[in-house]
Amino acid sequence: MHVSTRGQQKGIAMPFVQIQILKGHSRARKDKIAERVVDAVSEVAELPKDAVWVVFEEVEAEHWYVGGRSVHAIKSGAKT
Fold this sequence. Notes:
It contains two helices and five strands; from the N terminus they run ββαβββα. It has helices spanning 27-45, 71-76, and strands at residues 2-9, 12-22, 53-59, 65-66, 69-70. A hairpin with a 2-residue loop joins strand 4 (65-66) and strand 5. The longest helix has 19 residues, at 27-45. The two termini are 28 Å apart.
């Protein structure tokens, strides 16, 4: 997850949270994640919730690696 400030709204820094997530998560799950992230950033930064931007970047399992192996390979049980 990456957090930065982008733009200004009436002089207020706009926190921008970019979340990279495996493709396939439901809209409901992303909605819940975004809601909790917005709540936390808003509370800690003492900013209104509508000043917090959240963007999801979905990544295919073939392009996400853990320990040198793609998540696709891990899920499929491949040994390579």
